Amino acid sequence: MEHHLATKNIGVSVTDKDRAVAEVLGPGPVTISLWVNGKLHELTVAPHTTLAEALRGSLGLTGTKIACNHGACAACSVWLDGMVVAACGVLAIEVGDRMVTTIEGLGTPEKLHPVQAAFIEHDAVQCGFCTPGMVMSCAALLARNPHPHVEDIEAALTGHLCRCGTYPHIVSAMLALSHNETDSE
Amino acid sequence: MTDELYRRERFPSGLAHLGLDTVEREIPSDEPPALAANAELNWIGKAVPRWDAREKVTGTARYTVDIHLPGMLHAAVLRSPYPHARIKSIDISQAEATPGVQAVLRLFATDVPDEEVFVRYAGQAIVAVAADTPELARQVLQSITIDYEPLPFFVDLASSKQAVNATVYENSDLAGVQSAGLPAMATDYELNVNVLGPTNQHSRGDIHKGFAEAAVIAEGRYQTQVQTHCCMEPHAIVASWGGDALEIWMSTQFTAGVRAQFARQFDLPLARVRVHANAIGGGFGSKSQMSWYGRTAAELSRLAGAPVRLVYHRDEEQLDSGNRSSSEQALRIGARADGTLSAIQLQSYGSAGTAFNAGVGAIAAAMYQCTNVDTEHFDVFTNTGPSTAMRGPGNTQGAFALEQAIDEIARQLNMDPVVLRDKIDGSPVRREERRLGAEKIGWAQRTSPGADSGPIKCGLGMAQSMWPALVQTNAACEVRLWRDGRVEVLSSVQDIGTGVGTTLIQVVAEELGIAPELIQVRIGDTEFPSGPPSYGSRTTASITPPARVAAWRVKQALLSMLASNWEVSADELQIQQGQIYLQSDPARRISWQQAAAMLRTDRISETAGRGDDYAGFASHNGDAAMAINGLGGVQFAEVEVDTETGVIRVLKVVAVQDCGRPINPIQLESQVQGGVLMGVSYALLEERIMDTHTGLMLNPNFIDYKLLGLCDMPEIEVTLLENYQGLSATDAYGIAEPANIPTAPAIANAVYNAIGVRLYSLPMTPDKVLQALGTVRGGQG
User: Fold this and answer.
1) Whole-angstrom Cα distance, residue B124 to residue B110?
2) Which residues pair with B488 in a beta bridge?
3) Treating both helix axes as pointing N-terminal to C-terminal, what angle do B665-684 and A167-184 enclose, rounded to 10 degrees?
4) Which phi and psi (to 5°) does residue B690 adopt?
5) What pLDDT score was predicted for residue B469?
6) Do A119 and B703 lie within an 8 Å CB cutoff?
7) What is the rounded CA–CA span in Å between residue B704 and residue B689?
8) ipTM of this model?
9) What does pTM read for this prediction?
């Protein structure tokens, strides 16, 4: 049980069902089902395929970016059952029946998520390559804490790297959202 | 009316916050009238939202790594595990015979008689393959057999400088050495073991007389480290041959430039090479050239007869995509009792690895008034990956030494560093920047070193930057007006994250008097008129004037058409907020769309190129020119130094910057914040660490190579000057590099002010702080 909780924090829960499945997977390509952005997809992947690769490759969801591919920059952040994970550090075959949410599932150019709108308004975007990951972590933070303080924002974005230096404008965007919510209450 | 070719116009001039004057300029008669100051404008000077932000925040922006073509193959690269070796043989036969492998390319010919082949750094590419899947491509590299004879090597500047036998090049190799900076030939110099030069000398006056006149002398040896670019999008290219044409998708800072390089490399007409760069995940200097990997992808595509995708992994980025060269600077400055400088002497060494041109800029010789100057620079080759330009190349390294030395002069003379600079810096722009910055950081409250009683000491410091205002004269922009009233702005110029697309929309909206929503920007494609590079802080200065000129000409065409229809003179027509009306009878009006609907053809179009600055250029060489005045920038830093742990925290940075006319203040603020943060990261954290025993990089990843994160960022206050000079149709210049140059020395000077001990080496890590304080002994010293 304790093991279960510990692993759940990084978004990987090992259940008996997963273990049973894992035993019959590989070494050749395997067919799995993935719930992504509310839709069930069937895809065939090599067992070592990461979730980031599966999303970008077979599913064509290229909004999730791979920048370091070793869990050190968080550019590939997606949600597993609402929790932020680095998709380069999760194998596609271990996702199981958890719901994957990617940047494409959060909002669209026509219908933006509030975090996306705030990023635009505060110019929290430069080259944009780290941006989808940043947006996913910010949206997850707001979902669990609608009124984050600077410290909460810092904690939520620790591990995200941006070389252009969008950090200050990301903080302004998030603080504005935090205050907006307060005003409307 | 003056003569036909030119007319005279009065332009706003001066710093807006101090009150504007005007200046008269002679301008070509086919260019638009003088643009008013920002306060009187509708779109220029406003925080118009970034043109591609919607795509970027939703993940729909298309980067090179997102390009997928039918039948596309994947490349992988075999790299040298040795920092220096003779390659005796390369056996690719097994790889070539592997099913699914479509092309194998040796980057060295090992079968030419009497020709020896060397690799000169660990990570240097030797063989590239293209296969059906990325996995297969990487896997098949293991079947390639290379017979190496490892050779002696040096990976650090200090050892390589002392070397007795050459470990990188012989004189006969110099012709093939790539330059890390401005185009120059290594062959113009003689190699002395691993040292080349002096490659850059500035000499004036009499240096001995200068030091004889000095009341005080500041002397120091400064070291700066190798920094890597760390673009978030790796270097990436998709190359596709079709018949006799080459189509390229590339994460590049210069679509038009790499097109010319591909055309030359493959002996194709310019018109048969097309380069696309839609969204680009950062560049910072490292994505300016076709480079060997671009050439390799195109070659593999030709061999395989299919599109080939080559994308660097993060370790390849760190090893072989360029870096900021290191430096070792012996700087000596003499000053008279009144503060005026009597002598500046600099001997610098720098290593750009296997590349040439590891300079420290001309900042020491050029920023301050001094009659007696003697500077010389030497390149030291090392067995490490070649450097390329990186955000403010040269001057960033040079400023770390110069600005600390000036601080030291001020200390010895018991003068305020700001007051001292008021005496020795001839730039009126920087003088005003110092005044504003000092006010904002609370300079008046600055205490003497070590004034805090506890173990945590606070300090304030400042430093300045110098960078030329560059212009690419080979830069053009097309503006099209369609019958539905929509406007397109087209150029091959690329947006690497600076927001140049937004500035084009603003300039065209302003000129046409219509809303930005009617304007679409199409850039990053060489099918459009050639735009400038996104390097050298020159993009805005180069492309916004032709955009305005083209828009003005389109407007003239539309108004002439309407005027002849209304049987009035075009001069009598005005456009405001999408309405065209007769000045003498404003009730006689028509909407922009209605007027466009009257066009005889579906669309009209004008293309304009970048003309000379109205006051001429200070210099003009090939496609690049320098404006008459440079770009100023002054930064102030507030730090906290923990004398028990040695940890430096930067609490606040005030950045006061000049970019001529600011077009989009929020984007400029973003860019300045980026320059400051990269500077803080350079000052405190980043360093490529080489193992001197194996010659390998020990931190080729984002775990061990430390980049500044959000938790470590200081508060940043950005002030942009509005500096009008009446130099072009937009009067706008660059900002990216000047915002990065002064940060590290401003922090170093603040650290001195906090603890009373100077740090001469970057990055300023806790171990160096403690060593400088004398709290710990030993180490490398």
Assistant:
1) 16
2) B480, B520
3) 120
4) -105, 140
5) 97
6) no
7) 9
8) 0.97
9) 0.95
